[in-house]
Amino acid sequence: MAQTLNFLAFDLGAESGRAMVGQFDGRRFVQTPAPLSEVYRFPNVAVRLPDGLHWDVLRLWSDLKQGLGLAIRKYSGDLAAIGLDTWGVDFGLLDRDGALIGNPYHYRDDRTDGMLEEAFRCVSRDEIFQQTGIQFMPINSLYQLLSMVIHRSPALEVAETFLTIPDLLNYWLTGHEVCEFTNATTTQCFNPVTGDWALSMLAGMGIPTHLFPSIVEPGTLLGPILPAVEDEVGAAELGTLMVIAPACHDTGSAVAAVPARRPNFAWISSGTWSVMGVEWPEAVINPHSLHFNITNEGGVCGTFRVSKNIMGLWLVQECRRTWARQDEELSYDALMHIAAEAPPFQSIVDPDDGEFLKPGDMPARIQAFCRRTHQLIPETRGAIIRCALESLALKYRWVLERLEELVGQRLDPIHIVGGGTQNRLLCQFTADATGRQTVTGPVEATAAGNILMQAIALGQIGSLSDGREVIRNSFDVRTYESGDKSRWDEAYARLLSVMV
């Protein structure tokens, strides 16, 4: 019998972070009682300062150490490795002494307003896409950096090193200043053709190219945790604790854990954002992918995630926050119940309309969109949530059709992973809107994929396909079959009419 190994995964999302342990016995994650055990969970909230919206990265670092210490004590120091993943695009800058220069900005901060147009004045839209293959979104690191150039940020003048958020945390853990491939690709500063930073494009925008460090592949052993960290978390007497860079972008880890049995499937990583795509052996950079604003982010084991970001359950989350401020806090289950009882197909919005990006009164914005597009205005909370969910499922269909055009193959089934799999109403809507069998699970796909890549790095799993068999052996999945598609076809035509 193979030795059971304990792998620790830190998964930091836009709302919370968690430390998860998977006990791998050579075939599956041991059920104790679940395949993954949560050791520690902590909030991740934006902090608004006079100069803008920031992440509280020092609080995250403190929580990471707290989770590491708890895991060490719970498993008596018997941890095979540690890996972490986070969201993409955001970053910290280090000075020449390796000290962090200021608190990292939040991607929803408004400093990037108008930066796409500024970028196109320096380098053409076509050239940016040819060099990066990344969809144009104002949140991308490229436009955050350009904003610093245009506003003559003093931080940029003294910065020596650019590190995305997981790379920054890995640096504090190990002392190694590197960028992991999957997260580096989210920045729109990386060239997937050359396999290096897009230095000529960056220089064309006045962004200092010396900032960008070496890039490492997912599954790279970064090294042991620093002695000072060992002392703080109680690991000094336990021997070496190795840190591995899995897919440090959370979607990259989530897609690694898709329990697919065959190629040519579509996947959706569903949470605050929905990311929908196909796993492909190379980046797809051509006039069609540019026209559809498709992105080519790095995957694991020599793959790319040809995909598109969709606004996702952010619409529901912001509605819930708005109503909580007004009177009462409704659970997500309660919201889904009233949405299921609301009349179908009353109004349709484009989830990716720019008005929905920033925090604020989401119910009023959804109503304003419907008013502007001459539709029935949803008045009740159930109607507003149903509008958001039906619109999201229809946008999945639009993205699926674009992906199939790009790769020239039918993509079937659709695999949904992540926290959004718990929203059964949206999952059924997805099957109905697309006419495809939809398989959901695992919920904790990001942490599972993180651990899977740690096990591959240590030679405990031989390949990605072997890893996906481990996922199938370890987690339950749920299958949704499509129903009557005719009414969804009518609603889809309405989505196309309101998309800009």
Quick gist of this model?
The chain is α+β, with helices and mostly antiparallel strands and 500 residues long. It is 40% helix and 19% strand. The chain has a seven-stranded mixed sheet with strand order 17-18-16-15-19-20-21, sandwiched between helices. The protein has a four-stranded mixed sheet with strand order 3-2-1-6. It has a two-stranded antiparallel sheet with strand order 4-5.
Total helices: the number is 19
Radius of gyration: 22 Å
Q: Which sequence of strands runs across the widest sheet?
A: 17-18-16-15-19-20-21
CATH superfamily of the largest domain: ATPase, nucleotide binding domain
Terminal Cα span: 58 Å
Q: What structural category arises from helix and sheet content?
A: alpha+beta
Helix content: 25-40%
- Name of the CATH class of the largest domain: Alpha Beta
Contiguous uncertain segments of 5+ residues = none
Topology:
Blueprint: E1 5-12, E2 16-24, E3 36-43, E4 46-49, E5 52-55, H1 57-74, E6 81-85, E7 91-94, H2 115-122, H3 125-132, H4 141-150, H5 154-158, E8 161-164, H6 165-174, E9 179-180, H7 181-185, E10 190-191, E11 196-197, H8 199-204, E12 215-216, E13 220-224, H9 227-233, E14 242-245, H10 250-256, E15 266-270, E16 274-280, H11 287-291, E17 295-298, E18 304-310, H12 314-326, H13 332-341, H14 362-372, H15 381-407, E19 414-417, H16 424-434, E20 438-440, H17 445-457, H18 464-474, E21 478-480, H19 486-498
Parallel strand pairs: 1-6, 9-12, 15-19, 19-20
Antiparallel strand pairs: 1-2, 2-3, 4-5, 7-8, 10-11, 13-14, 15-16, 16-18, 17-18, 20-21
Helix pairs in contact: 2-4, 10-17, 13-15, 15-16, 15-19, 17-18
